[in-house]
Design brief:
single chain; alpha/beta; Rossmann fold; 7 strands
Length: 209
């Protein structure tokens, strides 16, 4: 487990927000980490930026975390339309399963209320039946959360996460990208397990081989 890891991000930046510190730790430990963004959200890009800015920013952000450029895969599913595109998304995820053969998949949690995130999580369950699946936390979309798995972080991992998120210049007005918020959430999750910092995950499926 945790040798070939797939981060499924419905939109660019979701993966970094949900598990950026863990990604930094996994890469540091020599794990093979793949990052898939299903949408670059061109309809949501502020007018003053070019339409493809999020594609540029996600490349910078994942590079900051240490993910190899060849392990970053970007798709163009339309933002807020995932529920209508389920079959196409499922077909893409099945292709990714066969190509990448991950043992562990990180995806939005069961408690995420965003329509694109919900569709991604549900199709993840269908496509990756033989993988351990972990749901990452995004509090602004969650009414509640199942804190059943923790990844301990050192300050350097958290610093990498913050640096990666700072690559999203086009999204800088969003409160959940605030450095202090990111650090305080990691601190809160760390305190829960008597550590300095952590990220927390929902165990959706746990396979022990």
């Amino acid at each position: 487990m945790f040798k070939r890891i797939l981060i499924l991000s419905p939109h660019t930046d979701d993966g970094e927000l949900g598990c950026g510190g863990s990604i930094a730790r996994f890469v540091e430990e020599g794990k093979e980490v793949f990052y898939v963004a299903l949408s670059s959200c061109e309809k949501s890009v502020p007018e003053e930026y070019p339409g493809d800015i999020l594609r540029i920013e996600v490349k910078r952000a994942t590079g900051m975390l240490g993910i190899k450029e060849s392990n970053l895969l970007l798709y163009e599913y339309e933002v807020r339309e995932f529920p209508k595109l389920r079959q196409e998304i499922l077909d893409t995820l099945i292709e990714l399963r066969e190509e990448l053969q991950p043992d562990t998949v990180f995806t939005p949690s069961s408690y995420d209320t965003h329509q694109d995130h919900k569709a991604t999580r549900e199709e993840t369950l269908r496509a990756f039946k033989e993988c351990t699946i972990m749901g990452y936390e995004q509090p602004w979309n969650n009414i509640t959360f199942d804190t059943t798995a923790f990844v301990l972080l050192e300050e350097r991992h958290l610093r990498k996460k913050i640096e990666a998120l700072n690559c999203y210049e086009s999204q800088k007005g969003r409160a959940y990208l605030d450095d202090a918020f990111i650090k305080s959430l990691a601190r809160t999750r760390g305190v829960q397990i008597n550590a300095d910092y952590a990220e927390v995950f929902e165990v959706i499926r746990w396979i022990i081989r």
